[in-house]
Specification:
homodimer, mainly alpha, Recoverin, domain 1, 5 helices, 69% helix, calcium-dependent protein binding (chains A, B), S100_Ca-bd_sub (chains A, B), S100/CaBP7/8-like_CS (chains A, B)
Chain lengths: 99, 99
């Protein structure tokens, strides 16, 4: 498997690892998303000063308003975070004067 | 770094690995996207019978119509592919009767 394929697979397995816990086994509840973010995105959570971060994120992403995130609702969150990280990376990369 | 953070990092490094080649060093040209897909998404390319696949993909994703993909235009492609893979995974997972 290539690096890009592996990263796609990781997104799927990480999502399902937390989604399968309580209630609906194929979606993330607020509690499950919180657990996922605490364990898998600790550096992102540290930058968030608002204690309602998880609640706000789920509200923003929950398109069908069922208070749960399915995989299609979760991916745009990871995509958005990755785009934010890349902006930081590009900035840093430019500063170092690399091509 | 957690698994999810690593997969976000991989998307960034894979993109830049190919983007940095010719012309604009921060975007993928059609040639660079083709190279990326041949090397990093060989299984996806195999399923595509149409020889214009790369051309069609770049047209679909290139929001600012500059015939290049920047990272923000590239991420929705990986996101869409991952969602398609997850549907396949969910189907397969159900069949195996796992929780």
């Amino acid at each position: 498997m290539t690096e890009l394929e592996k990263s796609m697979e990781s997104m799927i397995t990480v999502f399902h690892h937390y989604a399968k816990e309580g209630g609906n086994k194929t979606t993330l509840s607020k509690k499950e998303l919180k657990k996922l973010m605490e364990a898998e995105l600790p550096n992102f959570l540290k930058t968030q000063k608002n204690p309602d971060t998880v609640e706000r994120i789920i509200k923003d992403l929950d398109q069908n308003k069922d208070d749960e995130l399915d995989f299609e609702e979760f991916v745009p969150f990871v995509a958005g975070l990755t785009i934010a990280c890349e902006k930081h990376y590009a900035l840093h990369h430019d500063k170092k004067g690399k091509k």
